[in-house]
Amino acid sequence: MTDTPARYVTPEPFTIDVPERALSDLDERLRRWRQPTFVAGGAWDYGTEEKFLKELVDYWLHGYDWRRCEEKINAFPNYLVDIGDQRLHFIREPGTPVEDPPAPLPLILTHGWPGSIVEFLDIIDKLAHPERHGGDALDSFDVIVPSLPGYGFSGKPAAAKWSVEHIAAGWDALMRALGYDRYFAQGGDWGSAVTCAIGMNHGDHCA
After folding, report:
1. Quick check: helix, strand or coil at residue 14?
2. How far from 16 is each of 72, 78, 86, 113, 131, CA to CA, in Å?
3. Pseudo-torsion of CA 113, 199, 4, 7, nearest 10°?
4. Measured between alpha carbons, how far is 202 from 191 in angstroms, rounded to an integer?
């Protein structure tokens, strides 16, 4: 079992605002991409399939809109926090409060590899505010969606110690830093391994 990196600071609000020069630099590099020599009839057995790669570059040049994605992420409350020596980015969308019944249940969602918090953008509001989508506010969750170390806007790991077990310990420390003694966890792909480690090593906190 990995020791919990329990030292943390108070989360600070964060707004994503990628400089325009970074987007211009990406655009320029895409325009200067060097087309590889494709093996006729090789398809994926000999590298990336030609049609797929060309369509991908064209999409990034002419179809993808980062500012739209940035706006969609910023529609939720974003934060940065230091857990041990690791800076983490996460979204926290509190569930709809209701009178008398228990408070919304805390739920941490972990993305996969390769992936990002973008995987969850379309379900955060549904989980936190089900009454807006034909559901019942009594079923709402406090939704926490962190970026894995080195992904998205989380910092790069300072040391090669962030195993599945260590990430699980970091998530547990994050949830406790947010005031949750008990919480639920879900993840897909690599996130499922993190979630399993939470259950195995931190079952006293994870429902």
Report:
1. strand
2. 10, 8, 19, 22, 28
3. 80
4. 16
Question: Phi and psi (nearest 5°) for 170?
Answer: -65, -40
Per-residue pLDDT of the chain in tens (207 residues, 90 and over written 9) = 344 454 556 899 999 999 999 999 999 999 999 988 888 888 898 889 999 999 999 999 999 999 999 999 999 999 999 998 899 999 999 999 988 878 999 999 999 988 999 999 999 999 999 999 999 999 999 999 999 999 999 999 988 889 999 999 999 999 999 999 999 999 999 999 999 999 999 988 887
Residue 44 is inside which H or E element, if any?
none
Q: How many residues does the chain have?
A: 207
User: Longest C-alpha distance within the chain, in Å?
Assistant: 68
Range list of H helices, the chain:
20-31, 50-62, 66-74, 121-128, 164-177, 190-201
Structure tokens that stand for 148 in this block = 């894995």
Q: Tokens 């030609």 appear where?
A: 50
| Residue 145 · residue 109 · CB < 8 Å | yes
Distance CA 126, CA 133 (A): 6
> Distance (Å, rounded) from C-alpha 195 to C-alpha 108?
9
How far from 10 is each of 39, 78, 97, 178, CA to CA, in Å?
A: 54, 13, 23, 9
